[in-house]
Each structure stands twice: as structure tokens, then as C-alpha cells.
Amino acid sequence: MKALLLLAATVAAAQTPEARAILQKRCFACHGPAMQMNGLRLDDPAAALKGGYSGPSIVPGNSASSGLVERLVSTKDGFAMPPAGPRLSEAEITTLRSWIDKGAEYPGGPAVSKSAATRPALWSFQPIQRPPTPSVKNSAWVRNEIDAFVLAKLESKDIQPSPEAPRTTLARRVSLDLRGLPPTPRELADFLADKDHGAYERYVDRMLSSPHFGERWARHWLDLARYADSDGYEKDLVRPYAWRWRNWVIDAYNNDLPFDRFTIMQIAGDLLPDADTTTRVATGFHRNVLVNREAGVSRAEDRFEQTINRTNTISTTWLGLTAGCAQCHDHKYDPISQREYYQLFAFMDSVTEETIDAPLPGELGPWLGSVPAYRKKRAEVLAEYDVATHQAVWENALRKAMDQPGKEVELDFALTEVTAGLDHSQRILRTPVIKRSPRDADAMTDHFLKRANLIFKRDKPLVEKMTEARKKIEEAAAATAPLAQAYVIRALPDAADTHIAVRGDYKRPGVAVQPDTLAGLPPLSAKSGEPRRLAFAKWLVSDTNPLTGRVIMNRYWQELFGSGLVRTSEDFGTQGEQPTHPQLLDWLASEFMARGWSQKQMFRTIVTSATYRQSSNIRPELAEIDPGNTLLARQSRTRLSAEGIRDNALAVAGLLERSVGGPSFKPPQPPGVAELTYANNNKWVDSKGAERYRRGLYIHFQRTAPYPQLMNFDAPEATVACSRRRSSNTPLQSLNLLNDPVFLEAASALAYGAKLEADPVGSAFEWALARKPSASERSRLEKLQTEQGLVSVCRVLLNLDEGITRE
């Protein structure tokens, strides 16, 4: 609050010694020469006069109507200024009144300014301009423009690129990068047999057209979206239909949905003129946020935290900025003010959550055929147990707690439990039963049957009857044909205004703000009548926005080379690293847009370049010059992802179940892990049959007790957007590969298949590593086979560094 006095600090620098003394003594000692509090800028004349808090802070020529003076003379706790320490004297206040009454002029402009508008512009905020392709000496090496940019830099340092990797290495590299799976023996053999011109490009095209392409790149996007199959926090309830949005992502990649459309559908698919079930399912991106269902947590607080999470996720995913640092104050390094942060926040502050029917192909017919029997059985059970009568009493008690909070503690407790456990419960309770939607009516009845004890805990017979009714309804539902649902968002027609949260505290609303973008970036333009969130989605992928194209292409480069051209792919701000090849990054971004935001075309361009095809062998002569391989004089060796390590083992063993899409599954895991969840309420029942051998992408992710193998190999925790995974090296990883049932089964299956071949050791080796063994490797493995058996040989192969590494 003292910071309001800094408004006059700029005057003090050029005005009376008296004013200067007042403000230096009372303000600079605590705050410094520039400050923003609750949307009020004190170092910018226009922003200062616009004001913050309640009404204008300064009314030039009228000190009596100025908010600054009102605060200075007030005696109201929490409103008066300064909030602590001695008050300003009458003489000091008179000095400030005099300045305001004379017009509140800023002679010479602000004395000191750290505003976003005056900070040096970030490189990433500069417009994307397509650079000319550089000339190089060794033009024979260049396969496309990418190579020219890379080679020009190498030649400037008298460094030669590495030779092309062997064809077996390239086959495995491309397959792992584009599909997340190793090539099958037949695919490898066919590629090696194809000696005609363009064989490599044809192989790349086959990988891009594989349905597993969507799975591999969906995993990358799920990291950014903080995807999980449960709520997180204390109760960590399961989300049975979270996978429906995951299916949409897989399909989007496989169908090469242009990235601009891919973005718009996820940010604002519900607002599109042609909105349908598919575009609405896409908004499930925002439903991956954590939900705190602890009864003692304010729903308003949880909604605020969810909106913060959504805002930060959008900032990381599309803008590559750490905007979340401005939640409580101006960003200390980047040109992002707190006001601007809450302008971004406002885009997501006007949405509500919803669940919709989203049937997969072939589901609707059987469901329509079976649902009448379910509805009939449900009605019979509800009538038999007189559920409506008891539910009415239960609801009336909850409404009483809503209307008279604090009067009856037990009812207050019951209300908090219901509010936390059932989304939108208070809205439903306020809606007359006959006006509730069928989905809301069923949800409230089902919740009553589950939590009747909250009101009727002293009537055990009644609670037991309601439990019986619930079980009968659940049995009837289980016999009904499945119909997928999806978690989506929609616009609130009567959304409240968004306010800056003073010091990031949701309980301290400050000045109101409108949805808008950052001042340092091109302005948002919306068509007449166009919803602001839809306009924002379009702005993210507009030609004028300099960030999205760079951020996305940098991230894809990171996935294909081990690190991005900007190594801090999550931070394109001043604290992030500068691009190693800025012109190449701009060329990629401009090419991305020029090709209609086609992701597959850009992947093809990158992986067919000579730069990508280089050997990854370490070059001793570059150890000191370029230890991090930032010059790209070779390819990088990267460890497979946590999911990829498991997928690779199952694939080479012939165990992988390759069906695409669908619900998550639960593979075997060590005892005691599932018991770590709240009150042991999330039972882990191992999936049976072929389902347990599905890809790691589909493993059920329980936030409070994730699948251990994923965590051992550095999968993200799914709480915030993850732009790049870090790789650790721990003993647990070796033990996991040696002793986990999945890898033991894979070794056994690999041995079984190899045993049927004329050369068991050679076959197992080639299937596992996509190359033939050397003489010394064969000799050592055959000795091991003699001493311990073929299964032991296969366990070694699946544990080799080469086996879990993409060369």
C-alpha cells in the first residue's frame, strides 16, 4: 500500500525539495523508484493516471477526488496508507495535494522506469523474418535449407560435419523418433534391401504414415498438457474418461491436423462457429488441471488455482514464457507486468467445466439399444427404495447449510464434503429437480446414494438401504453397452469480472482487468462479436505472433536432436538461453507457417536433412571446442523416454499389443505402491491378457502413486507443463531393467522367439539392437548362453545402454 506514494516520487525528482524529502524518507527506503501494486503503475504517467484499486488514483486538478489522497487521510484499517508506521503529517499531505491540484504533471516524464514498455525488447519478441539461405563451400553436403544454416556456422569455425550414420542406425533412429518404436525385422530388411534412389525418404514416409506416429508425438504433447488419469492432491480420484482427449490428440497427429487448427480447437473449440463434439473434446486440454477435493478447501480458491495453472500452461506451451512469475508482482526479468498476467488469466477465468457424451465409432448403436433397459431398471430401483423422498430431505439439509452457514457444524461439514466431491453441486442444489438436466439429476442422485451417511449417519438402516440401491444401479449400469464421455470446458454466459489478485492472493481482489495479451507483443484483434478467448486462440497462431512458431519448432528440434536450438525450451525470456542458430530457428518457424502449419511436413524436412542423418559418434577434436554439441557437428545420443524403454523391450520381444487409442490400463507393479494413495482408496487391479502389453502411453497415471517404472526413468509428475524431460542415471534404473516383471517377460519371450531360429544369439541381438553382433560380442554372448542360458543372454541385451538409447 505504501507503494501508492511512489506516484509522486517522479514529481519529487524534479519538484520541490520538500516533496523529494517526503517521498525518499517514506517510500524509497522500502520500495525503490518504480513499482506496480494491484494494477497501478507509478512509474508511467498514463498508467498512473489510469489508476488502480478503487477508482482513479489521481484526478489531475482535484485532490479531493483523488484515490491517493483518500487513502492518505483515511483512518480505516486495511485501507489507510501507510498500513504500518507513522502516518504522513498534514504538511506532507498538503504538499502532495498541491501537486495534484496544479495538474499532477510529470515534468520530463518518469525519473526512473522499469516498465515493460521501456525494457529492452527480447530477441524472441522480434517479428519472425524469413532469412536468406546462406552460401556454403561444401554445397554437396547440403540436402535442404537446414543444412545450409548448420554448415555455414561450422565452416565459419573450420569444422567439418560428421559422416552419415550407417543405414541400420538410421533405420532405428527414424523409427524411434517418428513412431517411438524400433523397426521390425521385416521393416529393417526391406529398407536395407532397397538400394534405389530415395529409399531413405520412402522409409521416412512409411514412418510418418504409421498410426503409431500419433502415439509417439501425443506423448510429447501430453507432457505439456500435464495429462493424468486422476485429480491429484489428497483424494486423487480417478478420471475414467481422461483418455478421450488423449485419443483426440493421437488422431490429430495421425491426420496431420494443421497446428493452427490444433491450437484453436484446444484453446477455444467450444466457441468455433462449426463447433461439434470433436472440437469440444479438444478443449479437454484444459481439463488436465489438478482438482483439490479436500473438503476444507474453498471451491473459490481451488478454481483460482486451476485458472492459474491453466494460464501458466498456455504460457509455457505456446509462448515459451515463465508468465507465472508475474502472479504476485511484475516479472523480475521479462517484460510481463502483473496486470498483463491477469489479462492472460482472464481468458480462462470465464469458463466452466462440463462432461459430454463423446462416443467412439461403433459405440452409439449398441448403447442406444441397451440404455432403455438401464433407465427402466434405474427407475424401478429408485422407486423401490423411495430414493426421491430421502434425497429431498438430504438436499434440504444441504441447502440449509448453504443459507445459514455456521449454524449447524455437522451440516456445514456435510456441505463441504458434497461440494468437494461433486462438481457444480451447489448449482445443482439450487436448481429445482424438474429443471435439472438428466446428467445433473443422475449425478446428484448417485452422489446421494453414495454419501447418504453425511446427513443420515444416525439412521444406519436407511444408509444401508441406500447402499443397496446404489449397488443395484451400478450392476445395471455395468450391463449397459459403453458410451465414451469427455471432460470439456464451455464459456460462462454470466462470468464475473476478473481482478488482479493482490500479491497473488485470491482473497484480495484488486483492479478489474479485461482479457488481453502482453504489451510487448502484437495486439490482439477480434472480429465484431467474436468471443475474446477464440480471438486469443487465433492470435496465438497468427503470423504476427513471434513466439508460437519459434517455440513449437524449437521443441520439435529438441525431440529430434536431444536439445533445442534454444536449450531452455520452456523459457524464451531473458533468463533462458539464446538460440544457437537464430536464423535457422526463424527459417523453421517461417517455413512451418508457409506450409500451412503442417507438422508432418516439418518432421519430414528435418529428418531428411543431412544434419539429422549424421553419425552420433563422439569427436575428440571437438571435446573442448563444443562439448555440448551446440554446433551440430554430429547427431546426439539420447536415452529413450520412460515409456519408450518399456515399449522397445516389448516390441523387440514380440509382446507389444499395438492397438491404438482407448482407455488406460494397469500393468503389474510392485506391491505397496497403490497403497500410498489416500486411505488406500485407489485399488490397482492388474489388467489381464493382451491389454497389459500395450504401449506406455496408455499406462494409467495416478498422480499420487504413479507407475514406478515411469518415475524411475524421469517421466514428469503431471502437475505442471513439462517442456523437456531431464535424464538421470540411478541404480534403481538398472534394478528396474533387471527385475521388473515386464522386462523379465520380455527377455523370456525374446529368447523363445530366437530359439526357433538357426542362429539364436545372432537373431536375438539383431532384433534387440537392429544390427549384427561383432565377433567379440558374439563370442561373449555365446559363452553366456552356454553358462546360463538364452534367457540370460536376452536379459543382457535388453539391459545394454545401446538397447535403451537412440543413436
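(the above was protein one; protein two follows)
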Amino acid sequence: MFVQRHKKLVLGLLALLMLVSLFSLKFIKYNNNIEAMLPADSQVQQAMRFLRESNFSDKLVISLKLNEPDRTTEELISATDQLANAIAGSALVNQVIGSISSADFIQEMIFFLQYSPQLTSPESLAKLDSQLTAAGIKERLSFIYRQSLSLGSAFSVPFLQADPLNLSSSILTNIQKLSQASGYNVTLNRGHFISPDGRSAMIIVKTSVLLTEGFGSRKIVNYLQEKLKTLPNYINADIIAGHMHTVKNEDLIKSDIRLTSIIAALGFILLFLFIFRDWRAMIIFLMPLGAVLITTGVTFLVFKSLSYFVIGLSTVIAGITIDYGIYVYLAVRKAGNHPQTIRNIRPPMICGALTTISVFVVFFFSSVKGYHQLAFFSNFTILLCLGFVLFILPHFIYQETKPPKVKLAVKYNFKLPDGLNLILWLSLIIFMLSTTAHLKFNNDITQFDAAGPQVAKSEEEFQHTWGNQELPAIFVVTAPTLEQAYEINAQVYADALLAVGPENFRSFAQIWPGRKQRQANLDAWIKFWTPEKKRKFRDLLAQQGKQFDFSQSAFSPFDRQLDRPLSLDQDPQNLAFFKQLKDQFVLEKKEECQILSFFPDQEKLITQFSKIQLNYPGSFLVSRKNFSRQISEALSGEFFYLVILALLATLGLMAILLKNFRLTVLAVIPVVTSLAFIGGITGLTGLSLNIPSVIAAMVIIGIVSDYGIFMVYYCKYKYQTGTITAVTLAAVTTLIGAGVLLFAQHPVLFSIGLTLVSGVLSGYLSSLLVIPAAYRLWKVKEDVQD
């Protein structure tokens, strides 16, 4: 045989291939984008696409706070300006908003009031008749006069001159409400965003980096953190953004991968030193490592990037593939490396590998792209390692006159009667199943956020400072053009007022409704202000104004609106405040326009707006609670389908490969036991099932089915190839690979580890204790003859 004749060449080629694979790791791009782990459900992808393309995903907030009581707001504002100027000098930053000009803001608001004829409702005009009397005008002018003598007159008087009848009060109120739609309680001090207590300031940073981009998030966060170091000692600053969660989660996963890899390596080394004590056994551990290294490079070439989720499971995959090397090693050491030995162990090995592969193949039927990568990575590693151990490993292990003994010798003389053994097993299964009665399935994606206490503390302080108790939910309307979007948005706003009231909904329609409504308002305005009414109003204003020494031109801005209202043709131009509000509420794209409205993220309101959504095709809701529910609905049905498919694939392959109904039933015992114990232990520990634990359970189906297949082959054929010891060591190595995940701090990896350990351990014990007892009790004619 080629391998036998050219051992050194084969070893050299394998070593070279592993070195190349190891060297290529530095060029591989890794990806922690959450979108790769989400289903292709239309609603979920729609919400993710919105978050990616909206102005939420490219925005960071810096909150600065005075930490010394004797420091003043003036010093805070000065430091805020310096930081804003320093941040602006980077290609990562599109815009820094640290302040707005108060003078410009007043002038803009006065100019915007010229749109009052389009924005004043007919109902408001109907109430105006009672004011157009001598007493009504006098009372109003008296109020304006008193205001002009107050300390804040420089701000209020220009508004009063532009609107002496107070028609625009609702417009100004709505602008203020919209500016706080995100829930933040902000005051303006010299144009800066200052907290009500005057001790904190806010800077908004717009970036081209989306929060779902792991490497970009790290760059912008690192850049901002470097700039924060230049702040004076009396100021603390925190970055509040989804980018922080992306970076911290990535850091934790990397740390967990390093830790678990080291622990797994130490576990395998100790296993080698104290159990095998044969240098050739190192090949068993090197082959899975080499297979994982080679597969990593191949997977990157196929998918163009590697998911941290898949890499995090690499120790588990290594633990699975080590099993095959253990089976071959012990068989050769016990029965020799002649062809018959390999022929004896080949059927159960191939059968076990195929059942494991079939489980991972099922992931290709998932709509989650990240699971396709997991399926490819796992199956390629298994096939590669299987080829190594069947065609290469036997030629490097031979039987000596006095071979070193494997210390782990499992004696198979159990004292319990077979019947009692089965009764105890069935009792445990029933008990475990009973504990699953109240088992919950938790699909809230926030449970997998491990950003850490520092980020949580910063966000808690930010909410306390700026008054945002809960992120709002969003109602999104979609239309081909902006004008159409305005019209739909106005209709949605009208429906929302009836359903939940004005206090529970913030819509751009409050200050800028659709053209039809603005035209109707303008028509009502023109109809109301007849020439006679204009003349009467001007005469009353001139007569009553003399008492307060108002000039004839004092209210000329409002007077001009009576004769020359502004055009309906376009949105207000060159108004910074309007542009900022529009940027917050309107998302214009090439193919469509979206307008956002905000409401409290509460279940009862989500239910109400879900009903409204049905009346407007293309509209959708975005909220943390609703998003979790959408993912849960999409994944629950899909994973039920995948689990059933994995079970059917495993059972079908077992029946085909074992060609015996009884052996197939017995080989399924570890699978049944593992699933029962996973549910039972999860319930007993007070935890909930989640998507990672379901994925791990599917992997376990493939792993423990191997144990069942090897044990039924052992029971039937009695091959002296060290099967019991091999199964035991295989379980130990898998438990090492899975058990290290219990040391992980990230909840996703920990959840996988807990599921794998409980499933593998229970599956192994049932294969070792239950299968032989059931085999002996379930006698058939051919066994009696044997």
C-alpha cells in the first residue's frame, strides 16, 4: 500500500499541509455579525435591514459628566467643544453634533411659523373667532406686553410678534415633543445639549460604521476612547452605542475561546500522559487538530469569512473527531494492525460517522446562513479525520510483544440484574421527562448579550441622567416616493390617535403632514381669513396696540401670512432643526422612502399597532420585544422541523446501515436518554431552552448515536477490539471538548456547554449500562443458536 511504503513522505506532506493551514490563520477574516445567525424570515430580515440602513445603527452618543462638585457648567461646555472638535478629524466620523446656535434656532423657528397656514387645523381656526374682538385682542396684547418685560423676552418676543394670536402653540409644542421622541430629557444651554441638573453634556457622533460590523465597531470605539483620554480629570465620559455591545461581546468570545482551547489542550495532554502513555497516541490528538486547521482554511475559502460562533464550537468538533482515532488506536493495539482488524471496526465507524454527518447536514436546510457554515465546517472536519484514521493511522501503530496497557479498563461485570437495570433507566427517563413539564423556551436575543457590567453601568447612568427609561418601539411606513410616504404617515397618525391617544405616539405628521392635509388646512385658512376679517383684525390690532405702545409694524411677520402664505410645493429648506428632525424620522433611499414614528415598547401598544399595520401594506414594527417574538416564531417552527429531520435522518441511516430492527432500536437508547436528560437537567437547574441549546442537542444526537452503534456491534459480534474502553475514552474526550465551555463567560457558549455535557454523559452511561442489558433480555432465535 502507498501509505505503508511511503510513511515519511505522507507524514511530511501532512505536516506541510498543517503548517500552511496554521500560517494561513493570520490572513483569515472573522465575522461576528449577528445577521448571519438570524433566520431568513421576511419580517426578521426586514427589521434587520431597517436597523442596518437607518440612522440608528450609525450613531454613537458620548455622555460627559462633571465629577467634582465645584466645577461649573461653563467648564463642562468648554470641554465638550474641545472634544467635539477633536473627534471631527477622522474618516470614521461623518458628523459631530455637540451644539446648535441659539440665535439661528430662534430665527429658524420664526421662519417655520410662516408655514402656519398649512399646519393649522380647521378646528383651531374655528376657535379663533372668539378672540377676534376688542376684549380678546386687548387681552392677548396685554400678555405680549408683560412677556416683553420679562428676563426671557429676547427669546419669546420674536415668536409672539410672528404669532400674536398664538395659533402656532401646538406646532411649537409638537416640535419639542418630536425632539424628545427618543425619550431623552435635554435642555439647551448656549446651544449645547445639557442635562436638567447642568452636570452632564451630550455629543452625538455619526459614523459610516454600522453597529453590526465587528471590526469597524472596534475601530470607531478605539478612536473615540483615545479622544476621551484628552478630557480634563474633572470630567468622566461614557460611550453609549450598540457598537460597544458588539466590541465587548467579541472580546468576551475571544477570551472564552482562548481559555477553553487551553483547558481542552491540557485535558487532552493529561489524558495522554496518564491513560495512553504511548508517544504514538499523540497522533490521535494531532489528527483532529490538523483536520480542524485544514478545514478552517477551506471553510474561509468557501464562505469568505468565518463566524466566531463556528470557531467557538471547534473544540467540540475536535472532541467528536478524536473518537475515531481512539477506536482505531485501541483496536490495533489490542488485535493488531492487519486488514481484518480494520474491516471489523470499519462498519461501526462509518455508520457512526454518517449518522453524525447526517445531523450536521440537516443544518443546510436551515434558513440561517451561519448554520450552513457550521454544517460545512463540521462535516468536512469529520470526513477528513475519518479518512486519516482509517487509511493513515493504522500504518503508524503496530502491536508490540508487550504493548503498553491503557489504564482505563472498564470491567464489564455489573452486579445489577438486567431487568432491574432497565427499570431504573426507565424510572430516570420518566422522572427527567416530568421535570420538563414547565420547561420554557427563551428566545429573547438580549439574553446572549454579554457586554459586561461596565457597559451596563454606563447605560444605567446614562438613562438616569437623561431620563430615558426605555428605548421606544418604531412604526415604519414605506412608500415609493416621499410624498406618498407623507400621506400614509398622516393616515397612520390619525389611526394611532384614535387607538392609543396622542401621548403614546410621536409622528412626523405632527409637524409635517401629507400634502393633501396641508392643502386642506391652507384652503380652510384662506376661507377663514376673508378680506373683511383681515381688515377687522388689523384695525383691532392697531387700536389696542396703542395702549401698550406697539408700533404699527410690530406684528408684520404675521400680517404677511394673511396675504401671502408659503407654497405647498416643497419641504422647508435651509432649516437645521427641521433637517435634524427629518433625519430622525425620514429615511430616503433610492428605491423607497420610509417614515418612522415612535411609541413606548409595551406589549399592549405593540398589539394595537400590529392591527394598524395590517391596513398599510409595506409598513412594519421594530421593537426589542416584537423583534424577539418574530425571531422566536421564525426559529421555533424551523427548529422543530430541523430536529424532526435530524431524528429521522439518524434513525433512517441506522436502520439502513445496521439492517436489523432490534439493533436499530437498541442503538437509539442513548439518543432518547440524552434528549430526556437535557430537558430534565435544564428544568432542574431553572434554566430555559434556547436556540444554542437546541443546536447542541441536535449535535448530541449524532455524537451519542455513535456510542449506541458501537455498543450494539459489540453485543452482537463480540469483536475483541477494545470497544468498551474506546467508547469510554471517546466520551471522555468529547466531554473535555464540551466541558471546557462550562468555563466560558459568554452565555451562548455556556448554554452549549451545559447541554453537551448533560447529553453526552447521560448518552454514554446509557450505552454502556442499558444497551447490553436490553440486548440480553431481548433474545431472538439467532442469538439462541449462537
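Reviewer note on protein two: The chain has a mean pLDDT of 80.
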